[in-house]
Amino acid sequence: MEYSHSDAELIQQPIGYWTWAAYKAIVTRTRAALAEIGTTQPQWWVLAQVARADTVRTRNEVSSLLRNYLDTGAATMESEIDRTIAQGWITEDADGRLGITAQGRAFYDKAAALQDELWAERHAGISDEEYLTTLKVLQRFIHNTRGHAWHH
Of the residues 3, 25, 26, 94, which has the fewest C-beta atoms closer than 10 A? Predict the structure, then answer.
């Protein structure tokens, strides 16, 4: 791959632009791939939270956790939970507890395999050490600008 600028020029580049460009490229690619198998990114988040949970989670717990992902918002998350239920992938009991269905488990496995492929695609040519350094530097930028980005 060819970089956009020399090292000396890259040092002068605005981090805001490059983080935005990376965000846009990654989210656009992820959402397009998920759409090809019939789901949205927020529906994937819901399904993954229910499928991977050690204990049963309620709608409120899942919605509260996910509503801040990519500024999705509470109303959108509630709607996406409803759509995930309508797809037959999860159920909700009278107490708001969410459970995965057999159909949901099968779809989760398919979507998880896709997510693994997307991870490998994004990380091609990037060592674990480079990735770790990148995340630490980004978190330092967030800290230095008094931002908040913790999603768990």
Answer: 94
Strand partners, 92: 98
The helix/strand/coil state of 57 is strand
Q: What is the pLDDT along the chain (152 residues), one digit of tens a residue?
A: 898 998 899 999 999 999 999 999 999 999 999 999 999 999 999 999 999 999 999 999 999 999 888 888 889 999 999 999 999 999 999 999 999 999 999 999 999 999 999 999 999 999 999 999 999 999 999 999 998 876 54
Q: Check: CB of residue 37 under 8 Å from CB of residue 110.
A: yes
Q: In a 10 Å sphere around its CB, with 0-12 CB exposed, 13-18 middle and 19+ buried, how is residue 104 labelled? A: buried
> The whole model's pTM is what?
0.88
Contact 90, 100 (CB under 8 A): yes
Structure tokens at 142: 């967030």
* Cα–Cα distance for residue pair 10/20, rounded to 1 Å: 16
